Amino acid sequence: MNEGAFPPTARRFESVGFSEIVKVRNRVMELLAAGQKVWRFEGGEPWMDSPEPVKAAMGDALSRNQTRYAPSSGIPELRRTILEKVRTRNGIPCDDEAPVVVNGGMQGLFAAFSTLLDPGDEVLLFSPYWTPIVDLIGYHKAQAVLVPTAAARRQGLASALAEKTTPRTKLIYWNSPNNPTGDVFSRAETEAVAEFARERGLAVISDEAYEDLVYEGEPVVAIGSLPGMSERTITCYTLSKSYSMTGWRLGYVVAPARYQKAIKTVVLYTTNGVSTPTQWAGVEALTRGTEFVAEWRAGYRSRRDRLVAGLKSAGFEIEPPRAALYLFPRTPSWLPSDSRAAARVLLDEAKIATVPGIVFGPEGEGHLRFSFSVSEDMIAGGAEALAAFASATSGR
Ligand SMILES: Cc1ncc(COP(=O)(O)O)c(C=O)c1O
Predict the structure, then answer these.
(1) Is any ligand 1 atom within 6 A of the Cβ of residue 251?
(2) What is the pTM of this model?
(3) Ligand 1 near 209 CB (within 6 A)
(4) pLDDT tens, residue by residue, 20-72
(5) Ligand 1 atom at minimal distance to the Cα of residue 107
(6) What residues does 369 pair with on adjacent strands?
(7) Distance of CA 330 to the CA centre of its chain
(8) Separation of 349 CA from ligand 1 center, angstroms?
(9) Virtual CA dihedral for 383, 389, 392, 396, nearest 10 degrees?
(10) For residue 62, what are the CA distances in angstroms to 59, 252, 279?
(11) What's the pLDDT at 396?
C-alpha cells in the first residue's frame, strides 16, 4: 500500500515555461476588475473582426451539415486551396500531400518540432525570438542555441550560425517577419541562411505567421521557395494574423515527403484534425487571398505610425518596424532598464500594459513590446498617459 504517493509530472516539463505574457494579462485583468482603466498594448492580435464572408462560409457549412469527422490532415477542398496558395504565392514547390491542416500556428510548430527533435539535439534560433519556441524545444528535451540577431546581421548570418553549430545541431528555426521586433530578413539574408542549411545538412522550421503583415519594402521571401530548400523545410502558416482569425485556431503546415507522415501522426493523436466547419471557413478565406489584409494594411500603418509618434514624444527612441504588429523600443532613461521592472512600473503607476523584452530572450532585455494593433482610441489615450507619466517621472 502506498496511497500517499503520487507519480511526479513527466520530466520533460522541467524545461518548459508557461507563457509570461499570461502573467501580464492576469495583472491587467485584476486592474480591470478593480474598475481601473488600462491602456492595453500587451496583446498580439489583429484589431478588426473576422471577415463577414468567412463567418458566412462557416454558417453555410453548418447548414450543409458539414459537422462530421473529416480526414485528420484536412478536408481535400482546403488542402487543395492551400496547395495552390503556397505554390503560387509563396513559390514553394511542394507535392500534393504536402499540406496538413492544423489548429493554428502553434500546433503546426509543435508538430514540426516533434517531427524533427530527439533529446539532446540543438536548434539554432535568432534572438529575440517568439517566447514559446524555446519552450517547444525544451518540451522535446532539446537545446535552444541563441544567435543574437543584431550582431549576426552585422557579422553575416551564415558566419554567425557557423560559430554556434555543433555535431548536435539539427535545425534552424526561422521567423521572418519576426515577433517581437517586426524585422524582415532580406532576400540576400534568406539566401545565405538557406545555403548554410544546405551545406550543413540542416532542416529549417520556417514560421511565417506574419507573412501578409508587411507594410513597406520587399515582401517576405519564403525560405522553402529557394533552390533545394523545399526538401528540408517545414513551413508553418496560420490564418490568425492574415485573416483576423485568432480564435478560430486554423493554420497549415507544408512539409516535404520525408516529414509528412510524422506531422500527420502528431495531428492525428493530438487533435485528430481541425473542426470541419472551421475548415470550410478556411477555404473561403484562402480563396479570397490577400483581399482582406490589403484593406486593413492602411489601418495598421497609421496605427503603427501614431504609436511610434506617441512613444517618441515620451522619450523613446524608435523607428517604425517594417512588419508584424509590434514596436520593440529600448526603455527610455526615465524607466528602469530592467525590462520586468519597467513593465511593472508602467502598469502599476501609469496603467499602461506592455510585455517585458526579457521574455523574448536575453537580447530582448532593456526593451518593451507594445502592440500597435489596438483601437485608435487606445493609441491616443495610451500615448497621452505615457507622455504625462514620462514628464511626471523625469521631473521627480
Ligand atoms: C511568431 C509567431 N508564430 C506563430 C504564432 C502562432 O499563431 P496562432 O497559434 O495564433 O495561429 C504567433 C502568434 O502570436 C507568432 O507570433
Answers:
(1) yes
(2) 0.96
(3) yes
(4) 788 888 899 999 999 999 999 999 999 999 999 999 999 999 999 999 999 99
(5) 9
(6) 355
(7) 21
(8) 30
(9) -140
(10) 5, 22, 11
(11) 55
